[in-house]
Each structure stands twice: as structure tokens, then as C-alpha cells.
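hiii so um. not sure if this is the right channel but i have a protein structure encoded as C-alpha cells and i wanna go backwards to a sequence. like what aa goes where. can anyone help
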């Protein structure tokens, strides 16, 4: 019984460590061009990212740019600021990465499968890809910042 209790508490401790690792992605990040800030949050057990800021130099007529490349015509008039570009990421403790997610590129209007990993506490690397071929895609580096 004593061994069982020890194993139980060790299991609880290990799960807490996994949760802390998984939540390292939570926060505000500059995109690789440092033109937008993306806030990553945990919602319903998955990680999502929303554009929360864009530098003024990208504004058009005093307004943030529109999502004019979106394949859905009804969404082309919405502002880039406020759109969710990361969706459905799940943390894989074994591989130490977030995967099974997708990333939306407002410049092209395309959505890609995506995974990411922490290179350091302040550097998140993401890779978007198509057709399930992870090695064939585009990488991006995001840098931790504040809102």
C-alpha cells in the first residue's frame, strides 16, 4: 500500500510537470518579421493564437489591413487584428512539441498543417506544411514579448 501511495504521488508530480511544459507556449509572441503580435492561449484543452497587435506602418488609411486574401469572400473585409491564426494545437510530451494544429497565413489566405517547438523560453519555432509531409514546408520563428 505504501508503494502504491508513493507511485500515486509521483504520478501526480509528473503530470504537473507535463502541464507546465505544455503551457510554455502560452503568452504573447512577435511574428518573425516583428510586424504582428500573436497571443497564444489554452482553450478547451488546445492551444490557439490570435493576432492582437500590428505595427502602425502596416495600417492602411489609419486602419489595420483587411483579410483580403481569405478564400471566403465574406471574410475579406474583416481586420487582420483579431483573427485566430493558430488552431487546435495539442502538446505531445514525448516529442516535446505542439502538433495536430494549423496555421493561417493572412498574406496568402491559405491554411497549413503546423507543429511547433520551443527552442528556448523566448523562442518558438513553427513549421507549416501541406499534404502531411512535415519536412516539406516553411519555418517561422516567433519571439516572446509583452502586449
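sure thing!! here u go:
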Amino acid at each position: 500500500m505504501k508503494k502504491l501511495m508513493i507511485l500515486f504521488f509521483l504520478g501526480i508530480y509528473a503530470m504537473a510537470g507535463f502541464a507546465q511544459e505544455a503551457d510554455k507556449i502560452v503568452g504573447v509572441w512577435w511574428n518573425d518579421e516583428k510586424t504582428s503580435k500573436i497571443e497564444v492561449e489554452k482553450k478547451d484543452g488546445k492551444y490557439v493564437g490570435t493576432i492582437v497587435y500590428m505595427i502602425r506602418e502596416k495600417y492602411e488609411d489609419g486602419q489595420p489591413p483587411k483579410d483580403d486574401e481569405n478564400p471566403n469572400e465574406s471574410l475579406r473585409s474583416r481586420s487582420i487584428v483579431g483573427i485566430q491564426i493558430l488552431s487546435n494545437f495539442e502538446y505531445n510530451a514525448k516529442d516535446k512539441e505542439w502538433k495536430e494544429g494549423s496555421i493561417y497565413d493572412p498574406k496568402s489566405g491559405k491554411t497549413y498543417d503546423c507543429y511547433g517547438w520551443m527552442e528556448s523560453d523566448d523562442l518558438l519555432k513553427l513549421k507549416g506544411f501541406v499534404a502531411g509531409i512535415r519536412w516539406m514546408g516553411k519555418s517561422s520563428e516567433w519571439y516572446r514579448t509583452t502586449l
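oh and Helices lie at 2-22.
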